[in-house]
């Protein structure tokens, strides 16, 4: 049987416990052998300014996943640069590793947005999707177009109402981010002064 590899794409600005718990649950729900955290270089749908550089976002992911043998870093989108389109990523991964089966993990807030992904039918031909429900974003498989229903599996996630946006805002307001990110990530953020005075920062 092919090794099943979960792909957890995101800006990870910064990576937080919501991402880590989601990846851990995805291993169980999707029968995955590993999950790769894959920072996007520049997500097509995100126009807001980013606090961390691609390098900083990658380093924070490395710090967050270092003690889990099933978690890996996937730099294919960072290495490629430019706008990160899933269709290119899926094609490149399938070509590089034909012996793997790729399962794209999407948060509950992203599942209904799948039909709008660039060339989604080509993406769905190469990978399947595992949708993890997220607080505030109820999803049913019937809400998806028929061509996606057989390619998407939904799984429940415990309610962890934490987001990178919230963490960046807490930093701007001088509030604690303890426990919503791992300790090494918290130290990295505080040592570098990330997300504080974000407007003047870069
Ligand atoms: P931002 O607030 O900047 O949008 P985010 O917290 O949503 O950041 P992303 O890097 O955009 O994090 O998300 C990467 C993936 O992780 C997406 O599929 C997203 O839906 C999922 N995700 C993010 N936060 C959670 C959470 N608390 N629980 C489950 N999934 C999550
Ligand atoms: Mg998001």
UniProtKB/TrEMBL annotation:
ATP-binding is among the record's keywords = yes
Q: Answer whether the UniProt record assigns the keyword Transit peptide to this protein.
A: no
Entry keyword set? ATP-binding, NAD, Nucleotide-binding, Nucleotidyltransferase, Pyridine nucleotide biosynthesis, Transferase
Quickly give the catalysed reaction.
Answer: nicotinate beta-D-ribonucleotide + ATP + H(+) = deamido-NAD(+) + diphosphate
The family database entries (Gene3D superfamilies) matched by this protein are listed as:
HUPs
The Cytidyltransferase-like domain extends over: 7-170
Q: What class of enzyme is it?
A: transferase
Q: Specify one Pfam family.
A: CTP_transf_like
What stretch or stretches form a coiled coil here? none
Single GO molecular function:
nicotinate-nucleotide adenylyltransferase activity
| Pathway(s) where this gene product acts | Cofactor biosynthesis; NAD(+) biosynthesis; deamido-NAD(+) from nicotinate D-ribonucleotide: step 1/1
Biological-process GO terms, alphabetical: NAD+ biosynthetic process
So what EC number does this one have? 2.7.7.18
SUPFAM superfamilies associated with the record: Nucleotidylyl transferase
HAMAP family reported for this sequence: NaMN_adenylyltr
Q: Which family does it belong to?
A: Belongs to the NadD family.
Q: What does the UniProt function comment say about this protein?
A: Catalyzes the reversible adenylation of nicotinate mononucleotide (NaMN) to nicotinic acid adenine dinucleotide (NaAD).
Q: What is this protein called?
A: Probable nicotinate-nucleotide adenylyltransferase
